[in-house]
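seq:
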Amino acid sequence: MVSAASTWKEAEESVLSCTTQIMNQAVDILRSKAITDNSYTFESKTIAGSSPGKHFRHVLDHLRILLDAIEEWKSSAPGLAARSRSNASATLSQPSGSESKKMLRVDYDSRINSKVPHLETCVAASLQEFERTVDRLCRIFEGSNGRLYAQPLRLCATTPLVVEMDSTVGRELWFCGLHAIHHYALARVILVKELGLKGIEEQFGVAPSTLVHREWRKASNRADVAHDVLAPEPKDELARNSSIKSSRSSRTASCSSRHSKGHSQSSRHGQVRCKL
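struct:
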């Protein structure tokens, strides 16, 4: 049974751990040597305009934009960041005046390219950037104790009009994790289905909730099998005994019927002989 987080600290630790594990999926794949630079840059015939390298680079870009925004907000508004660290509930109030101008903002559509070259063409460069991003992610949240997770932010989106909406750091961290899974799955289609590569783990590109559900289902099936083997239900036993008794009664009734029928025929024959 899946349990719920009871505190911001517990929620932050869980989402941070999950996002870190998702990012490390790419680290493991890139370290495994299953992907070469040629396969990393292969242009998909199924997914137009994409390659595994482009999907991996896109994953890095999104998380980098979020982490850049957090670090910029911390440095430009140290007073607000300090108040956020000391009292997470205070950040739930509507900002006003100068605080509104210094509010944490995230815009994934800004498409600010990474300064790291060859991220979508070189496996080694991509691996180093994933490792650096995981370290950076853990460092930013170090000592937060759930306060950064609950920090409100303003999310900007191009729809094509530029609109803004309220969110939180925790919500956007979770989005980056799910966004990564989505692009891992697309990269997996290219690597496994189109290129036929081996050594790509089955869990690569699968959502955390799906993995939890699979484990829960396996555990449930094992419990059902163990219950059937070790402790048959009483109803089954009663039904089985009832069936046996019913079968015996039927055979007894059938024998009695045949015996009675034969006795009746003998009597009739005896009566006929007497009349003759």
